[in-house]
Design a protein that fits this description.
The structure is a single chain. By secondary structure, the chain is mainly alpha-helical. It has eight helices and three strands, in the order αβββααααααα. Strands 1-2-3 form a three-stranded antiparallel beta sheet. Helix 3 runs antiparallel to helix 4. The longest helix is centred in the C-terminal third of the chain and has 23 residues. The radius of gyration is 23 Å and the shape is elongated. The N terminus is likely disordered.
């Protein structure tokens, strides 16, 4: 019964991979087949230590959000928890944790599906969008303080009332 529930959870979680044919769970070995190139979780175990401890950051953010803790605080605490797991359990250095948080992670795994999932950008990949948002908010604040928005709104209301 528990294996069936975990199997459903894994198949739901991996459904974003596209044409996943099936997911099996024999004795905690996850096998995923997409087209004709199967990979298993032991490929990831060559790169990471997998276990319950690696789920702690996800569990932490879920519990914090269910307790209605502020989202920014929850994300920050979960990131700190992930850094601690990476440092103490995975054996990463503080320098590599900061580098991955800023530049993103890149893997040497040859599986195409895993490369697509794992090779992602960090904060530097979001910098362009954060800069656009900051400039837009700054421009809006400047236009509001100078009274430009009020004058535009009054002109539109006067035009509508005529």
């Amino acid at each position: 019964m528990i294996q069936c529930q975990v199997l459903l959870l894994v198949s739901f979680h991996l459904s974003f991979l596209g044409d996943v044919s099936y997911v099996t769970l024999p004795m905690w070995r996850f096998y995923v087949t997409r087209g004709t190139s199967p990979f298993n979780m032991f490929t990831l175990q060559g790169e990471f230590k997998l276990g319950f401890i690696t789920l702690l950051p996800a569990i932490a953010i879920i519990i914090l959000l269910l307790c209605k803790v502020n989202a920014v605080v929850s994300l920050g605490l979960s990131a700190i928890c992930a850094g601690a797991v990476s440092f103490f359990y995975q054996g990463a250095t503080l320098q590599s944790i900061i580098r991955v948080a800023y530049n993103g992670y890149s893997t040497s795994i040859e599986e195409g599906i895993l490369q697509t999932i794992l090779n992602r950008g960090g904060m530097s990949s979001m910098l362009q969008y954060v800069a656009i948002i900051c400039f837009a908010v700054g421009m809006g604040g400047m236009l509001d303080r100078l009274g430009v928005l009020g004058n535009l709104l009054n002109a539109i209301v006067n035009h509508i009332n005529r």
